[in-house]
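lol forgot to send this yesterday, sorry. C-alpha cells for the thing we talked abt
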C-alpha cells in the first residue's frame, strides 16, 4: 500500500509503501544518531517536496531533533540567513531539481553554503548526480553512502515534552533577516490532527495532494497526516490562479477507476470544477481549501 506517491514534474515518478517509508526513516534515524544528532539538535534540509524530505523530517523528530527546511531554489544568502541562525548539526541538500522542464544544477551554490554551515552535508539523489556533487564538498556524502552502514529495524522514539520544539520555520525576511518561528511537538500534532480530520475530513485511505513549499506550514503539518501523501515538486511551477498547471500535476487519479479521492490544495483560490478541469481529474470527491482558501 502506498504511503507516498511522488511526481517530479514529468521527470521522476516514484511510489513509497508504508514499509519502505518505515525502513528509510529507521535507517536515517540510525545514521543521524551515528553523526551525534541528539534531542534538541537542529537538522536542516534544502530539498524539494520529495519522499526523502518527509523521511528526514520523521527521522529527526523520532530522535527529538528539530527539523527546518527550505526550497532548493533559495539563493545562498537566503539559505544562510535562515540556517545560519539555528546552527544545524546535519545538513541535507539535493543534487539539483527540475523547473518547467529544465534541469537546475545547484552544486556551485551548495559549496559556499556547506562551507559556511561547517557540518556534514548529505546529498540526496534527484538528478542522479549525488555522488559527484558530494565529492565537490569538504564534508559531503551521498545519501546511499550515508545510509549504507545502517540496516532497517524498529525505530527508537525519544520521549519528549508536549512543548518540545519540533519545527523551525521562518518569516519572509522582507523586513530584515528572517525570524525563527518555532512550532512545538504537541501543538503541531493537535493542529495536524484537527486540520486533517475536521477541516479536510481525511480518512486513512484517502490521498492528500501537497504542493506546498518546504519552508511552509502546509508541508510540515501535512506530512504528519495519517492519510496517504501525494507530493509534487512545485517550488516555482507555473500556475493558473493558485492552481499549478503542467505535467507535474496531471496526476494519475484515473488509475483508480471509479474510486474517488479527496484532494487538498493549500492556498487554493479557485472553484473545484475549474481546478478539476485544469489538472484533468474526473474522480475527485471534493476539493477542500487550506491556508488562504475560501470554502469548498
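and heres what i got for the seq, position by position
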Amino acid at each position: 500500500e502506498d504511503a507516498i506517491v511522488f511526481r517530479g514534474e514529468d521527470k521522476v515518478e516514484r511510489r513509497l509503501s508504508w514499509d519502505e517509508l518505515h525502513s528509510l526513516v529507521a535507517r536515517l534515524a540510525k545514521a543521524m544518531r551515528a553523526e551525534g544528532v541528539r534531542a534538541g539538535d537542529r537538522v536542516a534540509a534544502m530539498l524539494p517536496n520529495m519522499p526523502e524530505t518527509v523521511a528526514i523530517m520523521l527521522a529527526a523528530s523520532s530522535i527529538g531533533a528539530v527539523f527546518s527546511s527550505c526550497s532548493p531554489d533559495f539563493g545562498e544568502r537566503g539559505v544562510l540567513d535562515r540556517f545560519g541562525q539555528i546552527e544545524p548539526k546535519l545538513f541535507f541538500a539535493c543534487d539539483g531539481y527540475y523547473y518547467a522542464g529544465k534541469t537546475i544544477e545547484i552544486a556551485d551554490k551548495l559549496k559556499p553554503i556547506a562551507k559556511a554551515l561547517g557540518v556534514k552535508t548529505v546529498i540526496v539523489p534527484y538528478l542522479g548526480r549525488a555522488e559527484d556533487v558530494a565529492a565537490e564538498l569538504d564534508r559531503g556524502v551521498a545519501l546511499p553512502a550515508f545510509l549504507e552502514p545502517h540496516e532497517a529495524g524498529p525505530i527508537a522514539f525519544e520521549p519528549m515534552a508536549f512543548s518540545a520544539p519540533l519545527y523551525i520555520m521562518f518569516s519572509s525576511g522582507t523586513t530584515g533577516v528572517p525570524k525563527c518561528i518555532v512550532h512545538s511537538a504537541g501543538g503541531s500534532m493537535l493542529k495536524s490532527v484537527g486540520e486533517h480530520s475536521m477541516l479536510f475530513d481525511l480518512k486513512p485511505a484517502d490521498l492528500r495532494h501537497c504542493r506546498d513549499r518546504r519552508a511552509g506550514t502546509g508541508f510540515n503539518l501535512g506530512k504528519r497526516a495519517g492519510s496517504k501523501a501525494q507530493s509534487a515538486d512545485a517550488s516555482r511551477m507555473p500556475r493558473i490562479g493558485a492552481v499549478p498547471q503542467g505535467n507535474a500535476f496531471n496526476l494519475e487519479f484515473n488509475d483508480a477507476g471509479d474510486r474517488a479521492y479527496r484532494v487538498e490544495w493549500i492556498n487554493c483560490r479557485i472553484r473545484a470544477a475549474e481546478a478539476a478541469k485544469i489538472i484533468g481529474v474526473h474522480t475527485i470527491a471534493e476539493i477542500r481549501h487550506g491556508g488562504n482558501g475560501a470554502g469548498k
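The radius of gyration is 18 Å. anyway ping me if u want another try
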